[in-house]
Design goal:
Helix content is about 25%, strand content about 25%. The chain is α+β, with helices and mostly antiparallel strands. It has 3 domains: about 1-60; about 75-195, OB fold (Dihydrolipoamide Acetyltransferase, E2P), CATH 2.40.50; about 200-314, Immunoglobulin-like, CATH 2.60.40. The strands form 5 sheets. The chain has a 5-stranded mixed barrel. Helix 1 packs antiparallel against helix 2 and helix 4 (about 155-160) packs parallel to helix 5.
Amino acid sequence: MKNKLKFIGILAEAIILVSVGFGLGLLVSSSKDRQIIELRSQLASLQEQVRQLQQQGKGKEGSEGETRITPTGPIKLATVTYIFDGDTIEVNGEERVRYLGMNTPESGRPYFSEATNENKKLVEGKEVKLEFDVQTKDQYGRTLAYVWLGDTMVNLELVRRGFANTYTLPPNVKYKDLFLEAEREARDNCRGLWWPCKPTGPEVGIKIVNINADAPGNDNENKNGEWVEIKNQGEGSVNMKNWTLKDEANHIYTFGDFTLASNKSVFIYSGCGIDTQEKLYWQCPEGKYAIWNNSGDTAFLRDASGNLVDSYKY
């Protein structure tokens, strides 16, 4: 069984590489964006098939590494009547529920469609259990919950499959360690949002090397006290036009026509200012809040096609 799974895994990886290579050759056509989305969807499907086969193999061989969990707090039964996206649903025809512990891409961002479709496959039209943490409502009036389908926590499963990143905010941190473990598994296996694990080309040298999340004084009043340092550790210059920098929530900075020279750094400040070759500014005019959470966050750097170039967790 192990040899069979290994063969299937190798075969799937080969198919993925061929698909990606073929996709790169198609990028010159006018339907570039649609082809990229289709390739990502095919890739996500292949990765999920490999994951399921590996899990089946573990079950047959009596793996001791699996962790089965059940709700640890009060629950409420509900029927899923509508899927808004990868992390928000409607239950009982009226109540909007936001998944706790994770975040999926917003409309127009890479993997939005894939995350939404995966959520549909998991819960659409089904009876689920809603488990609550300390806070039960968010600022928009949505119910905050861990959504269970049998003994599967859907929030956690979407992270494990690579369709979401962790996003735990105090005081709702009941399953924080499990979410971090699931994200680590997805990243180690290059699933979904974490593809590609090893970028190629000139962008491979672009790295997030430091984040100063805790500005002196009140972060919201000193946004430029927060910054992210990105360095080109490669040998050639890289044009970063339309690249994006994102946190665990949905704050997104999009680079203009900016080129980062070899062995040079650029600092992206969270407030407003005049852009230079060494300093770029996130919010002009400034918003109400700073960007980076002092208690911990993750930065995601993606190229113009939405491929993950680097990430940095603190």
